[in-house]
Write a structure and sequence with these properties.
By secondary structure, the protein is of the alpha/beta class. It is built from 8 helices and 8 strands, in the order βαβαβαβαβαβαβαβα. Strands 2-1-3-8-7-4-5-6 form an 8-stranded parallel sheet, with helices on both faces.
């Protein structure tokens, strides 16, 4: 089976309102290997066993936004070139755009299953076209995804609704989360999963910069992931802000998602690359 490559992208310089997500990769790793739990996922993979998970540390992103994007794209491109399945720990959500540019170099873009409280579809936000509020506008306008399915979104502005229509995005808010299950199950791959932790109800994940009440549960997210039948070729977990966490609860939720995404990324499912 495939070995999953864990890589950190400690960049939060494209964040609005509050920074802090750059510290997330280290804290998620700490929670992942905490003796408070064990290293197995629900599928039965032991992340500590040989050949399951390889941690390649953090991408050196520096302080300049353009250089950070280039570094992220370059490292992910190199991983894909050697056949790796990357699982990237952000960082803010702006990292997803350079990651998917690396996938775009392989040809047709994957279908994206995107969990988030926010659409992240602004054409520009506070004068920045590469803000963490904009990655999926860049992704869709460059044809880096064959399809975009958003789950948990509950903050669409009029501009973002126009963007949804423009890019033919399928949006399932929290009240419609179960309607997403057959849609995701029918995807024939390849699939990329982008998981913004603020998709969750804030009391389940207090370590967020932009908490939005009315969110999903951890089990809601896992239910969607468990319906995936096609091949998952990559994933990211973003927008954890340790500055706001309580007893590392959000770090532990992120670590749980790491475990279950490793299972998906290792699965020899059909469809795609």
């Amino acid at each position: 089976m495939t070995t999953v490559t864990l890589i950190g992208a400690p960049w939060d310089g494209s964040s609005s309102f509050q920074r802090g997500a750059a510290a997330a990769p280290a804290r998620i790793r700490q929670a992942l290997w905490s003796p408070s739990s064990n290293s197995c996922n629900e599928r039965g993979d032991d992340l500590a066993a040989d050949g399951v998970l390889q941690d390649e540390g953090d991408i050196p992103v520096g302080d300049d936004a353009s250089s950070a994007r280039e570094a992220i794209e370059g490292v992910v491109h190199g991983l894909l070139g050697r056949g790796a399945r990357p699982l990237v720990l952000g960082g803010d959500h702006s990292i997803t755009y350079p990651i998917l540019r690396a996938y775009g170099a392989r040809g047709a873009g994957p279908a994206i299953v995107h969990f988030d409280a926010h659409g992240d579809l602004y054409d520009s936000f506070e004068g920045d076209r590469y803000s963490h509020a904009c990655p999926f506008a860049r992704v869709m306008e460059e044809g880096l995804a064959s399809r975009l399915i958003q789950i948990g979104v509950r903050t669409l502005t009029a501009h973002q609704r126009d963007q949804v229509a423009k890019f033919d995005v399928q949006v399932f808010g929290p009240a419609r989360r179960r309607e997403a299950l057959p849609v995701v199950a029918a995807l024939d791959g390849p699939i990329y999963v982008s998981l913004d932790l603020d998709v969750l109800e804030p009391m389940l994940a207090p370590g967020l910069s932009h908490p939005e009440p009315g969110g999903l549960t951890v089990l809601d997210v896992l239910d969607v992931l468990n319906t995936i039948q096609a091949r998952v070729v990559g994933a990211d977990i973003v927008e954890y802000n340790p500055l706001n966490d309580v007893r590392d609860l959000t770090a532990r939720v992120a670590a749980k998602f790491v475990k279950e995404l490793v299972g998906l990324l290792r699965s020899p499912r059909g469809g795609g690359w």
